[in-house]
Structure formats: C-alpha cells, structure tokens
Design brief:
Blueprint: H1 2-17, H2 20-23, E1 32-34, E2 40-42, E3 47-54, H3 55-58, E4 68-71, E5 77-81, E6 86-90, E7 96-100, E8 102-105, E9 108-111, E10 115-120, E11 126-130, E12 135-139, E13 145-149, E14 165-170, E15 176-180, E16 187-190, E17 196-200, H4 209-217, H5 220-226, E18 236-239, E19 245-248, H6 254-262, E20 273-276, E21 310-316, E22 321-326, E23 331-335, E24 341-346, E25 358-364, E26 367-372, E27 377-383, H7 385-398, H8 402-415, H9 420-432, H10 436-445, H11 449-466, H12 468-487, H13 489-492, H14 498-511, H15 513-522, H16 528-548, H17 563-587, H18 594-604, H19 606-618, H20 627-653, H21 657-702
Antiparallel strand pairs: 1-2, 3-27, 4-5, 5-6, 6-7, 8-9, 10-11, 11-12, 12-13, 14-15, 15-16, 16-17, 18-19, 19-20, 21-22, 22-23, 23-24, 25-26, 26-27
Helix pairs in contact: 7-8, 7-9, 8-9, 9-10, 10-11, 14-15, 14-16, 15-20, 16-17, 16-18, 16-19, 17-18, 17-21, 18-20, 19-20, 20-21
Length: about 700
C-alpha cells in the first residue's frame, strides 16, 4: 500500500511539473530532411513546442481568425486579431501591453475592419493593413492615430480597381511595400507620403507556344488585355535588416513545381519564395539539392494533395537562415542562405505542435512563433540542442571562424550521421583550412559535387607538384608500352582463333567503315558469337560507367543499381533496331539478311565501348570546369556509333545515302510502332489473365 501511494504521488508530481499536453517527450510530428536523391531522411527534432498562447492565456477573450504576427526589435509581439477587428500588443513574456480596438480619426471614433497585416517600425509606429476598409492606418507607439493612406492613384491603375491591402512592410527610407488582394503586377510601392510609386518585383512568366500563336492572331485590344492574366500573385512579404524583400506565393501550379523539383531548377519563374532587391530582381540563392519549395515529395490524390502552399517567411538576419510556412501541411521548412534545407518541423492536427490553418510565422529571440487562424492560438517553439548546433555552425562559418564551425558540425554528426549538410559544412571549413583531401571526402559524403570539384582542383595541383617526376615517368612508360604493342601486335596476338580474329576486326571496321562493313558481309570477317560478345561488353561498359564514373560526373545512386534495367537499356533498343530494320529493308529491296543486320549493328557500337571505358578513368582526373571535354567525348561516342550504323546499313543493303537516311528514319518509327503494339499486347494479356483468374476465384468460391 505504501509503495502504491508513493507511485501515485510521483505521478501527480510529474503532472504538476509537466502539464499533460507537454508531458510527451515525442511531439506529434516528425522531423526530416531530403538527401541528394530525394529520399526522406528522418532527423532529430530541431524545434519542439514549448507553449501555446491563446486569448484566455492573455486574459483578453478568445482570438477570432487572427491573420498576422509581428515581433519588434525590443521583443514586443503584435497580433492582428482580424475577426475581432483589433490589434493586440504583448511583451516577450506575453503580458498584454495594449489592446487597440478603436482610435480617434479627425475627432471621430474609428475602427478596423478585418485587418490582415501589420508592421512596426524601429521607432514603434504601427502600420496596419485595414483590409476591408481599403486603407493603411499608421498609429503611434501608444496606439494614437497618425494618418490613413487610402487606395493608390495612378493612370496605370484601373478605375474599377478594388483596393484590399493584405500585408505590408517599410524600408529604412519609410517607403511602403504592400501586398494587395487580386494584384498580380507585383508589389505596390508607395512613397513615404503614401503616394503611388509603381509596381515592383512582378514574377517573370513562362510563355508557351499557345500564348505565342494567340498573340500573333489577336487584336491590339486583346493583346493588351492578356497582360492582366500573366504574372502570379504574392500572398505575403517580409523585409530583412539589409532591406531585401522576401515574398511568397501559392499561385504556382503543382506541375510547374514538380518540374522544378525534377530538374533541380534555380529558375525564379517557378519559385514560391523569392528575395527581391530594390529593383525587384530576385536574388535568392538556390544552390541546394532542390529548390526551396517545401516538400519535394507529395501525393496527387487524397484529401491533402499537391505541392506545399507557402504563405509566410521569416528571416534570421545574422545568418541569412529563413523559415517558410506551409499552410497545406502545417510544416515549417528552414533553409540557409544558399537554399539548403536545414530541418523541417510541424504538421496538421490538433495536438501540441500541429496546426489547423497556420497563417503567420515570426521569430522571438531563439524561438519561433506560429499563428493558427483556425485554432486561434500561437504555438511557441523552442530550439533543441541539435537545432542550436546547426544554427551556431552556420553563424561561425558566416563570421569566418572555420575551425570552431568544424567542431559544431562534428557535434551535429554525432546526433545525425546521415545529415548531408553537416558533411558539406564540415567540408567548407576544411577547404578554408587547405585540408583538401579531408574536404573532398566530406563533400563526397554530402553529395556536393561543385565544392568537391573545387577541393579536388587544389588537391590535384598539390599532388602533381609533389609527384611531377613520377607522373612524367609513368606517361613515358605508358606511351612506350602502347607503341611496342602496336608495333608487335601480330606477334603478341597470333591469328588462328576465328572468334578472336572476328573481335579484333572490329577495330578495323570502326576506322575503315566502307571496307570493314563490306568485308563483314561478303568476306564473313564477322560472326554472331563475336557480335554477341560485343553486345555483352556494351552492357558491361554501361554498368561500369554507371557505377565507376568519377564522383563529379556521376549523378547516379550506386545503391540503386538494377541490372535488369541496365541490360534492357541496351538489349531492347538493339533488338528493336535489328527487327525493325530487317522488316523494312525486306520490303525495300535490301540485300542484307537478319544475321547481317545483327552483326553490322553490333560492330557499329564498338566506339561506345572504347570511349566510355576511357571516360571512366578520365572522369577521375578532371574537374567540373573541365567537364566540357568529358561531354565532348561522350557525345563523340554516340555520334560515331550513329554514323557507323548508318554507313553499315547503306553498305549491307547496297543503298544510296538518301535511301539509307530514309530507311533509318523509318526504322526509328518502326521501333516506336513495335513498342506500342507490344505494350498493347502486354496490357491485353494482363486483362485476360485477370479475367480468367477472377472466373476461377468465382467458381472456386461457389464450389
């Protein structure tokens, strides 16, 4: 009995110290990042929910669909309680300092109507986007009315324009930047006196062929009307300490965002978050594995589908770290100033740390605040040691303290050994310390090829300087060996073995195609076994190149080798070409047999084998800046192979060049037709098998 009483008292004590909603050590969401291959990599939590602030906590009644949040330099928190038409001001400890429901405007009492946005200047002046009243309101530090700024006036603004300001910020010169509803020309820029200056930062559009055709046949009035429909509309804005404007948009299509992810695009035309300078040019760095778009893997079916819907952004000006808020899935994605994803937290739900409709995000010291317009509360997230180590490492590197940054990254790796960005950060610090070999290894583990190339360039230079004599000696010996082998090849490789002779003749064919292909057919210098070996070597070459190409030029995941796909990628095109070519040339008076086509095509692929095998070691000794040579030789192999196939077709079938080119084009069309028919047959067989199996199950069930 005494033991039970002690246990009960211990439980009650824990509940008193840790309230039930925060007692769980594991939050209601998962933290993760994405690796270079796009896989989800689960990670320790960078932020954990610390507290929830609502109207009852503040003692001012329930909040009603609040829509914006602002934290001033002195730690004051400003809340736009839109549904209650009021602005709430608290200190950093959540003690209410003011509740602004009304103000005196020219001797009359005035109120807000659905205020959606607010901004506070350094001197404490409060600017409110009074949305449904169609104006901006400036209040003094004590909430006293200063002025109102009505709808902008200019010739370029339509007379029927309905002004509904949603969000706003001010720069050091007191210029006002406004995001307004249904305005897709960009940000409305107002001078300090409230006069209209113009639009800025309109997103560039992605034209398509239909737009060009329509523009060519439309009238001048129609072309003028088309301008109104092109750019995307911004939904939020933030200004950092350097005066750069961060804007978000959720108007991009899922297909455009998916394409940007697939191609790892840095194109600002498909960017849900942008960083604009004073000229409206997007200068946001997008150097991460993927563009900063939120989730890069998302479903297209279900209740929550499609790409992330980014609705707000907040920036840590000391490091350039910025966090974006995803309303669709309730997640906060944090990126460094290069666009690398640091960590993700949050989610949709009603548990602590999750949201129903997150509307705004802000920073309060080292904490992150998220405003929920449906749950009518603010969730306060505090940083964990893991998250703090990441931020500290970035700050130390940003300030030039590279050795200290290295120590922080090593501590991060103790928490999460799969964190690629930690290897990249560690590699950057080692590179600054001229520890090139170690930096290369870190960049390899972090899958950062451009920085690996930079470190390798320094490492190669240092290695060549230290071993110049040995390298020159090795080149001389290799040259002498090649010369001796070429001079005495007849003695070294004695003839007599027909298979070896057939294989060796491939070298003659690729350099003397006219005589070589003639001899393959008429003198039987080639053979089916030799052709089979060449195709097998081609498959092996493709596999070796995929797995062994130098890190800088190899973007394949070595863990995902699928031999069936690699074999099929060679055998299927090869087989389709031979079959389609034989079918066509039989009808077009071709003199070559099916066996001739198989042998000729196989021998024509020898340049792919030779050059690709040479490219494997070559890729290990060049940098990314020298990659043009690698690309040239890879394309040369394809061109050489294609040329040999065309010449082999011409000589084998005794065609003219014109007829050969026509036949080759028709062969490619035939390959597509055979593939289409094959897929139809496969689908039909699959349906038949399913039908028969269903009947069998039905009969078995009834019996």
């Amino acid at each position: 009995m005494r033991v039970k009483m002690h246990c009960l008292l211990a439980v009650l004590l824990c509940l008193l110290i840790f309230p039930p909603e925060f007692a769980s050590a594991a939050p209601a969401y998962e933290s993760y990042t994405y690796d270079y291959w796009g896989n989800v990599v689960y990670a320790p939590h960078a932020y954990l929910p610390e507290n929830i602030i609502d109207g009852s906590t503040l003692g001012i009644g329930d909040l009603n669909t609040p829509s914006d949040l602002f934290v001033s330099r002195d730690g004051r928190v400003y809340i736009a309680d839109s549904g209650n038409n009021r602005i709430i001001v608290t200190d950093k400890n959540w003690n209410v300092l003011a509740e602004i429901k009304s103000f005196e405007n020219n001797g009359k009492s005035d109120t807000f109507k659905n205020p959606q946005g607010l901004y506070v200047t350094k001197d404490g002046h409060i600017y409110v986007a009074d949305t449904d009243n169609g104006r901006l309101v400036e209040l003094g530090p004590s909430g006293e009315f200063i002025r109102e700024i009505g709808p902008p006036k200019a010739d370029i603004i339509p007379a029927d324009f309905v002004y509904k300001p949603m969000k706003l910020v001010l720069d050091e010169a007191k210029r006002i930047y406004v995001i307004a509803q249904n305005v897709n020309q960009g940000i409305i820029e107002l001078n300090a006196d409230g006069s209209f200056q113009g639009y800025m930062g309109a997103s560039r559009v992605i034209p398509n062929i239909a737009d060009y055709i329509w523009k060519m046949i439309s009238t001048r009035e129609q072309r003028a009307g088309m301008v109104l429909f092109v750019p995307t509309e911004y939904n939020n804005i933030y200004i950092d300490d350097e005066g750069f404007l961060y804007v978000t948009t959720s108007a991009l299509s899922d297909s455009d965002i998916q394409n940007a992810i697939n191609f790892r695009s840095a194109d600002d035309r498909v960017a849900p978050v942008r960083r604009l300078n004073l000229t409206g040019t997007d200068v946001l760095r997008r150097r991460g594995f993927f563009p900063p778009v939120g989730d890069i893997r998302f479903p297209y079916i279900g209740s929550v589908r499609g790409a992330s819907m980014l609705v707000d952004v907040v920036v840590d000006s000391t490091t350039g770290i910025y966090s974006v808020l995803d309303r669709k899935r309730g997640r906060i994605f944090t990126y460094d100033n290069d666009g690398n994803l640091l960590y993700v937290f949050g989610g949709i739900g009603e548990q602590v740390g999750t949201f129903k409709s997150p509307a705004a995000i802000e920073r309060l010291g080292g904490k992150i605040l998220v405003l929920d317009s449906k749950l009518n509360n603010i969730t306060v997230f505090s940083i964990t040691e893991y998250g703090s180590l990441i931020n500290e490492a970035l700050y130390l590197h940003h300030t030039g303290k590279y050795e200290e940054a290295s120590d922080k990254w090593r501590q991060v790796l103790r928490y999460n050994s799969n964190y690629e960005l930690a290897y990249i950060g560690l590699g950057k610090s080692l590179l600054r310390q001229d520890r090139f070999a170690e930096a290369m290894e870190c960049f390899r583990l972090g899958n950062k090829r451009d920085l690996y190339s930079k470190a390798f360039q320094h490492y190669r230079k240092k290695t060549v300087e230290q071993n110049f004599g040995w390298i020159v000696g090795g080149i001389v010996l290799a040259t002498a060996a090649v010369w001796l082998i070429s001079k005495y090849r007849d003695k070294i490789f004695k003839r007599g073995n027909k298979l070896l002779d057939s294989l060796g003749y491939a070298f003659y064919v690729i350099f003397h195609p006219f005589d070589g292909f003639w001899a393959l057919k008429h003198e039987k210098r080639g053979s089916l076994p030799a052709a089979g070996i060449i195709i097998v070597l081609l498959v092996v070459t493709f596999v070796l190149r995929r797995q062994l190409t130098g890190f800088i030029f190899n973007t394949n995941d070595p863990k995902r080798l699928n031999l069936f796909i690699e074999i099929s990628s060679v055998m299927i095109p090869y087989g389709l070409w031979c079959i389609a070519n034989w079918c066509l040339t039989t009808l077009m008076d071709g003199e070559g047999s099916f066996t001739d086509i198989i042998i000729t095509t196989a021998y024509a692929t020898v340049p792919l084998i030779l050059i690709n095998l040479l490219l494997i070691p070559f890729s290990h000794i060049i940098t990314a800046e020298e990659g043009a040579f690698y690309t040239f030789f890879a394309q040369l192999a394809v061109f050489w192979c294609g040329l040999l196939i065309v010449l082999g077709t011409m000589i084998t079938h005794q065609y003219t060049m014109r007829k050969t080119i026509g036949t080759s084009v028709l062969t490619i069309v035939g390959m597509g037709l055979i593939t289409f028919i094959g897929l139809l047959v496969f689908d039909l067989l699959q349906q038949i098998i399913t039908f028969v199996y269903t009947i069998y199950r039905e009969i078995a069930f009834r019996l």
